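pinned: reference chain
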Amino acid sequence: MATRCVDRELLNDWHIVADQESLSQDTPFATRLLGVDLAVHNRSNKIEVVRSDTGATLKSAERYGFIWTCLDKPWRDIIYIPEANEADRHLVNGGSIAVNVSGLRAVENFLDMGHFPFIHTGWLGEEPHTEVAPYKVEITPQDEVLATECKFYQPIASPTAKEGFVVEYIYKVIRPYTVALYKSNPIQKDRLDVITLFVQPVDEENCVAHPYLCYLKEGMDAATVRSFMQLIFAQDKPILENQVPKRLPLDPRAETPIRADAVSVSYRRWLRDRAVTYGAIPAQV
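pinned: its structure tokens
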């Protein structure tokens, strides 16, 4: 039986539960959020999200090509992505990928530059370029975890890259299960491509990753953007699913961090400060 979520930070927030492409007019789309079974109905292009246990219809919305819902009363709006309003960007759903691990682990993996040369060899990293240079981490006035001045040599940083170069990254953890990455564009050097990873916490040890890509159009098509993202995530999936334990330990003594893990350390502390325990192994008091 699924563990009941009691974290107000999660229950009172919006979460993706389906991408619009997966819905049909005839059959409800079955999914789960925070241990609660849901059915997403597309009735005459009117979306309804219904709890399977009580039959209650939940608040729902459509944004960025996804269906969103909230299990309780939303404390705030759905995340705003300004780049989604820029006409010269491809706005691409990177596919909804089920992963047998806590969604918090998926977010932390997304923040980890140290695995690039070993898991994404020939793409996002390669030996001997294995060192993660020092970078800055702070909590913003908007209460987000922000990592800046992240630099890493990448042989093929994006589909438009013709040669390897040192890519600059900015990471932003916006909500407990949502993280954004801003990275150098190989053609327009003064602008950044944006990947937002929305993680749907199915239960404490399973999630669905919903990448949303805002890539500058120059030099590439939307299908290439999507296939590149799916290639990279396919390399991450088996690594994530072999994580032990599957839930994210929040006790500072549970795992030994190194300098390269500064953003991960801040993320775990940020979760503790917000009393987020779903998908985590809480810190011992």
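why pinned: The CA atoms of residues 142 and 207 lie 26 Å apart. The chain is about 15% helix and 35% strand.
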